Amino acid sequence: MSPKLRLVLLSFLMLFVELALIRWTGSNVVFLSYFSNFVLLGSFLGIGIGFLRAGRSRNFFPYAPLALAGLVAFVRFFPVTLRDSGGDLIFFGELKPHGPPKELMLTVVFLVVAATMAFIGEGVARTFARFPPLEAYKWDLVGSLLGIAGFSLLSFLGAPPLAWGAVAAAVFVAVELPPRVPVLAALQGAALIAILLMLGFESFAAGTDWSPYYKIRYQSHPVTQDGRPVEPPVDFLTVDVNGVPHQADYPVKDNPIYQTLYQHARPKGGLGNVLVIGAGGGNDVAAALARGARHVDAVEIDRRLYELGKAHHPDHPYQDPRVSVHIDDGRAYLERTGRKYDLVILALPDSLTLVAGQSSLRLESYLFTKEAVEAARSRLRPGGVFSMYNYYREPWLLDRLGGTIESVFGHPPCVHVLGAADGPNNFSVLTVGKDPSSVACGTDVRSGGALWEPSGAVPAPSTDDRPFPYLRGRSLPNFYVITIALILLASLALVRWAGGPMRPMIGYVDLFFMGAAFLLLETKNVVQFALLFGTTWFVNALVFAGVLLVVLLAVAVQRRVKDFRRPALLYLALLGALALAWLIPPDALLGLSVVPRFFAATALAFAPIFLANLVFTQRFKDTESSTAAFGANLLGAMVGGLLEYSALIVGYRSLLVVVAVLYGLAFLAGRRYLVPGARSEAGLPRVAEPVPT
Prior knowledge:
The protein is of the alpha/beta class.
């Protein structure tokens, strides 16, 4: 195999496994759905350590299948659920205490992922070192781009984990053949077979499906009355996602929670057009049809949940010709549609996963901002009604949403709470009309609903810049602080122990800062495109692919230009692009139609990325130890991932200021290398490259 093809395949393997681990671990360790970026950070640490180890004589890459098999076994046989929920940060998941503390479990998963990715990263690094720095970087990017494309294709096809494992195993076998040590080859084969068996049992378990967002478990039950099945027999479906109960597709006439809003909603034009966001299996659609809706737009982000509802819901709402189904992000649909509605419903749209594993943004976060409620109001006819309901779990969350609705509509919503007065998860319905007379409301919040009144201090509305409705205030929860501290301590110990002496990285402090800044810049673009075009997996895949293509373009420009006469001006241009992106907030683009919005968003997002990579490649091309330099850059990216949590306090727009500061530090640390043609190791002893093997 040629070294170029080997590097492409190894880079493909590295990114493909990283994406698969982010997706798969969150399906089996429930709170990793909310913190999947810890898997990403573990990947960066591991790959960085692999690059730092590349100069050592002992090659650990052949042991990568054993490490991966150990990780899969650990997650499969030691599952845990949430230890607690509520307080100042809400999770929608299992509430009963079970399993070890999440701070400990997150740290353990982080370390196990880091160890696994270190083995794979070392294989990439040893091939990386055979090429001049920019040549190696180019082929690494090509492999990474193919890795994103491959995993996205499997997501589109709804492929289960067995397919992911088979792809990874095939690539590993291709780059390792022919086996050099028979005993090691036997261990590798046994590990790969064990991985495929464990993933195969999970993939083909009865009642299990995989969507791009969830591991879905479903089960059919007979509808009963007084403990006996009804006649004629009717079945309903219960659906768990990522191990957490998510929905039950129940006959609407026997499902009172879906009738509550109609006790209050009195749209002036009747139920002509109804919009259901979070349509899921079809309960809300069936309820609207039963109330006489003439047309229902059903928006659901997960196609597989819709397909299960279409096939199994006892009322068959999706077969009704009055229903139009949109597989889309709810906020994106609100911004894009020109239709006016008599009733807009946010129907239990709580997700159990983050966007792309690279941010603190949940799939539904942009549905609960002040700007989202304004968008919903703008889609109502003059006598229209807006309603939202869920098990809100904490009084302060109900107050936040009530206060947000009041600030947008100019009058308080009607609140109806179902369940026992001391219940922890009371089902609450908030209903408000453009015209207050469009809503009928009583005086008791539990028997007939009452106008919302705060139970205490009302948290400020969440916004598109800081879309964290489930976080009470501008703070970093204690368990974040504890977990981040544990991760940093463990990372320092691992880098020193596994990566060897840190002296080779001393000359690459500027590349470390660039790595931290670039990860934050990439995260900012992910959440920006999620707002502008939806939090769907497809949008995220396109963003990541776009980032890699822009980086490849920067490499091509650098190879053609060779040396910029005044490299310092690249920093100045980068800071200018960051300033422009900060001055034009994403909300300003929402008023544009889709095509001009796309071009404007692309220019604002990718211009800083292009310039940042010109800065990086100008510095990276002359490094004498490309593996140590790239390792420093990856470790910086891990720190940048931790800095992303500052968005919980300052919002995503302010991350651009942090990015500018980090690039400023990179400029100060590397200014002596800004002389055209200067060797990056000036003043430092030469570090020997790994011997090609």
